[in-house]
Structure formats: C-alpha cells, structure tokens
Write a structure and sequence with these properties.
alpha/beta; Ferritin; 2 domains; eight-stranded parallel beta barrel; 13 helices; Aldolase_TIM; magnesium ion binding; Thiamine-phosphate synthase; TMP_synthase_cyanobac_bac
Length: 361
C-alpha cells in the first residue's frame, strides 16, 4: 500500500471511529436519561470503551495528522432529514444506524492494514446489534404506552377473578366494548394470586392493544410485565415508584384537589386520576371534590399548566357523565358502570360518545 493509500485509510478510520463513538455516546445517554436503564447504559458504555481500545492499535497522532476537515468534501453534503428529529425514537434510530454503518466501514478498511483490528471491530459490531435491538424495542414500548395513554378515553378498574378463564372473558369484553386502559385493583387476594392474574392480564392486554395497570403494587407490575402502576396520595411517592418501575412504565397518581394536581406535575407521574367525583359503590370517601374540581383541572389543561392526561374518577356512569364532560374533562375511569356484562357495550359506547365531544389536550 502506498503512503497516499495508507494516509487515506487512516483518514477513513479516524472519521468513522469518531462517528461510531459519537453514536454510542448518544445511545448511552438515551439509555441513561430517557429509559433509566442501568443494564443498557452499562452495555453501551462497554461498547464505547471496547471501540476506544481497538482503535488503540493506531497512533493517536497518526489519526489526528490524517484528519483534513476543511478539505473534506463530505462536510457540506447534508439531507433535510439530518436537520431535524421528529421525536426521541428518531434520535435513537439515527444513532444506531450511523453507528452500525461506521463500524462496518472500520471493519472493511481495517482489513487492508490490520486483520486483527478488523476482527475486533466485527465482534463489537455484532455485540452492538444485540444491544441496539434491546434499546429500540424498549423505546418502542415507551412510545406505544405514552401514545395509547394520550389517546385513551375510557379506563376501567377490575378485581381479580376466580381463575384465568373468567379473567380472560372479562378483559376481552371490556376491550370489545371500547375500553382503552384496564387497571387490576384487588387488596383482598394474596400476592401469588395477584401476580398470576396480573401476568395473565398483561399478556392478554398486550395482544389486544390496551394498557394494563396494576394498582399500588410496583413490584408486581414489574414482575408481571404490566404497562404501569397506579398509586394514591398515601402510598409510596411517585418518584420512589419510578426507581422501581423505570422510565418505560407508566405511573398514575390519584389527586383530590388542585394543589395535589400541581404537585403531580412536579413528579415523574404520567397521568392523574381526579376525584372522587360522585359517590360510588366500590370505595367510600368523606369528601367529594366533584365537578368543581374537574373544572379546575380542565382550566389548568387549557392554560397549559397541566400537561398530564387527567381521568375523572368516582361514581361515574352513563347517567352523570354529561356533567363530567361539561366540566371540560374528556377522560374517565370507571368501575361500577362497566361491572355488569349485560348492556356493557351500550353503556361504554354511550360514554365514549359523550367523552369524544371533549377535545383531548
């Protein structure tokens, strides 16, 4: 290989090592700060360090001397897509693609001068494929959950059933009736039963394309593969729950006045329940904030002070849902209204029709 060819190869290696390192750092930050995933963060950091070690067979001064940024004709070649990113997922997609391409270039051009170096890059490249798969799938799960949550209108709370078959029938009936989110709430059963039904429900909900939330039990939500957990004001604080469930699962928080709503916006909660609106049959309360509270929540949404999806809860049914929508709230969580199999579809349909008159913010 001539001196000119050697210098050209070094220039290519330098450019692609920089490109791969930048891509890995971008992905490491996404795993660390977006997903709060220690395992993925550690794997990406290891890939980055392995790349630096592999590049150590080249003199740093040789690589720097080969660099000619002002004379690089490629610096002025850009596409419109390079100048913008639609969302966080697109940042990750761009970084994984860029890193994979850079590693392939390192491997191919490295073969011309050092086959051992090329083999080490090949190993890193295959390891990255596996890590990138896990990262992108996890990010896709986050996006799916947040998108479904933003679109949700009807949220149903259910208790455990005697066994899997009636639970399956119950979930399917609710989904067929138009429910977007289902929460499993039952403090009367033992942990093993709750876990088993939570796991069964999580798998079925995933197949049916609805969100599956576990009440209060962050540990069971994670173990069962649920989409999230819902907690109350007197339960484990949201940010402590976040450390258990990670960034990729949803956390809902019950609120009973506008001060609690404002406080919720300062936590990592993904949505809030607002109520109780009316007296119900499943839980008893000394105080009912009612529709006046819902109006305050709606005003906060309109002003932009509240960006969390807000679900009215407490005694809501087809006979009083119009009062809820008149307050400006277009999402509700219900228990008794959809408890009976008979007429469930008609009730759910009527409630959705009312809710969809309210624009989602």
């Amino acid at each position: 290989m001539t001196n000119i060819e050697s210098r050209t190869v070094l220039r290519i290696l330098d450019a692609n090592a920089n490109r791969a390192g930048e891509g890995l750092r971008t992905l490491e930050e996404s795993a660390r700060f977006i997903l709060d995933d220690l395992g993925l963060t550690d794997r990406l950091k290891t890939h980055r360090h392995d790349l630096a070690t592999a590049m150590g067979c080249w003199s740093r001064l040789q690589l720097v001397e080969s660099r000619d940024t002002p004379g690089d004709v490629g610096t002025g070649v850009t596409t419109e897509s390079e100048q913008s990113r639609a969302d966080l997922s697109s940042v990750i997609t761009a970084a994984t693609t860029r890193t994979q391409q850079a590693l392939r270039c390192l491997e191919e051009y490295g073969k011309t001068t050092d086959p051992e170096f090329a083999a080490s890059i090949e190993s890193i490249r295959y390891q990255c494929y596996a890590t990138f798969r896990d990262l992108e799938l996890k990010m896709a799960g986050v996006n799916f959950r947040l998108r479904k949550l933003q679109e949700a209108r009807l949220y149903a709370l259910i208790a455990c059933e005697p066994d899997a078959e009636p639970l399956k029938a119950r979930i399917n009936q609710l989904v067929d009736a138009g429910v977007d989110v289902i929460q499993l709430r039952d403090s009367s059963v033992d942990d093993r039963t709750l876990y088993e039904q939570a796991s069964f429900g999580a798998a079925l909900a995933k197949r049916r394309g609805v969100l599956w939330i576990i009440n209060n039990r962050a540990d069971i939500a994670v173990a069962a593969g649920a989409d999230g957990v819902h907690v109350g004001q007197e339960e484990v604080p949201v940010d402590a729950v976040r450390r258990v469930v990670g960034r990729d699962r949803l956390i809902g928080l019950s609120t009973h006045d506008i001060e609690q709503v404002n406080e919720a916006t300062r936590t990592s909660a993904d949505y809030i329940g607002c109520g109780p609106t009316f007296p119900g049959k499943t839980k008893s309360f000394d105080h009912f904030p009612g529709c006046e509270f819902l109006k305050q929540v709606s005003d906060a949404e309109q002003s932009g002070d509240l960006k969390l999806p807000a679900f009215a809860i407490g005694g809501i049914g087809s006979d009083n849902i119009e009062r809820v929508t008149q307050s400006g709230i277009g999402r509700v969580a219900v228990t008794g209204a959809l408890a009976s199999h008979e007429g469930m579809h008609q009730t759910a349909s009527a409630m959705r029709e009312m809710l969809e008159r309210v624009p989602l913010r």
